[in-house]
């Protein structure tokens, strides 16, 4: 397993650091490589509890955000909020299932929260 983990960690760190330095030079701010490593480590450790993939910077996403004029953390938070809004908008379907059958509604609710809290695989398994 380590022979797969180490290259992913090294590549994601180098990519994140290079993207940060590229935009840091462009917008006149300094990037602390130690702080970036700690941030990536904490982020990836926490995300591993939720079945997430390894995280790192992305040149296409960063360039789109930069060309759109985004400069604050608020832009990232609004993107996440919009994505969550569409996910939780599906919650209205629960009432339809509950009216048709209490059992169907309960299964839908268990599956929904299993996917949101655990991950997609476990949530679907819980629904069976």
UniProtKB/TrEMBL annotation:
Q: What are the transmembrane regions?
A: 6-24, 36-55, 75-91, 103-125
Look up and give the membrane topology term: Multi-pass membrane protein
* A GO-annotated cellular component: membrane
Which residue numbers delimit the SLC26A/SulP transporter domain? 4-73
Mention any Pfam family matching this sequence: Sulfate_transp
The entry's keywords: Membrane, Transmembrane, Transmembrane helix
Does the entry feature the keyword Membrane, yes or no?
yes
> Could you name the domain of life of the organism this protein comes from?
Eukaryota
| Protein's cellular compartments | Membrane
- Residues in coiled coil: none
Gene Ontology biological process terms in this record: transmembrane transport
InterPro entries attached to this UniProt entry = SLC26A/SulP_dom, SLC26A/SulP_fam
Task: Fetch the PANTHER family from UniProt.
Answer: SULFATE TRANSPORTER
This one is known as SLC26A/SulP transporter domain-containing protein
Q: Which organism is it from?
A: Medioppia subpectinata
């Amino acid at each position: 397993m380590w022979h797969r983990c180490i290259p992913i960690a090294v590549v994601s760190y180098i990519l994140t650091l290079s993207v940060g330095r590229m935009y840091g030079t462009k917008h006149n701010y300094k990037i602390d490589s130690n702080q970036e490593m700690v941030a990536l480590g904490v982020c990836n450790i926490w995300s591993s509890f939720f079945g997430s993939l390894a995280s790192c910077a992305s040149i296409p996403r960063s360039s789109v955000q930069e060309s759109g004029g985004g400069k604050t953390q608020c832009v990232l938070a609004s993107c996440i909020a919009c994505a969550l809004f569409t996910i939780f908008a599906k919650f209205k379907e629960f009432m339809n299932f509950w009216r048709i059958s209490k059992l169907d509604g309960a299964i839908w609710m268990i599956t929904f929260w299993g996917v949101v809290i655990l991950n997609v695989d476990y949530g679907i398994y819980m629904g069976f």
